[in-house]
Amino acid sequence: xxxxxxxxxxxxxxxxxxxxxxxxxxxxxxxxxACVACADACLGEEAVADLxxxxxxxxxxxxxxxxxxxxxxxxTGSNEMVVGAMLDACAVxxxxxxxxxxxxxxxxxxxxxxxxxxxxxxxxxxQARAEVGSPLQ
Length: 137
Known about the structure:
The chain is mostly helical. It has one domain: Up-down Bundle (Substrate Binding Domain Of Dnak, Chain:A, Domain 2), CATH 1.20.1270.360. It has helices at about 5-10, 20-45, 50-75, 80-105, 110-130.
C-alpha cells in the first residue's frame, strides 16, 4: 500500500504536511534502497579502495533515510520537532551522498543512479520540512 493511503487511513492522524511528508517518506525508502545497492555495487568494483568514502556515505545515507522514513510515518502523536530534525538530517545526508556519488558517476552507473535518488530525497525532505514546522533554533 502507498504511504499516502496509509496516512489517510490512520485512525488518530496528527501533525501537518501530510502530502509533502508522504512524498518524503516514499523518497526516503527509495533512497535507502538505492544507497544500499550502490554500496554493494561499489564493493564489487575492481578499484574498491577508491570507493571507500562513497561506500561509507552510501551506508550512512541509507541509515538516516530509513530512520527519517520510519519516524515520519508514525502519526499517532505529534512529535514535529523530532520529525523536523530527522528531515533536516536526511536532507544533509542525501546532499553529501549525492555529491560523492556524482564524483564517480562517469565511471559507475550505479553511482549516477544513487546520486539521482539522493537528490530527489533531499528535495522531498526539504519540502516536507517546510510544512512540518520551523527549523530547530
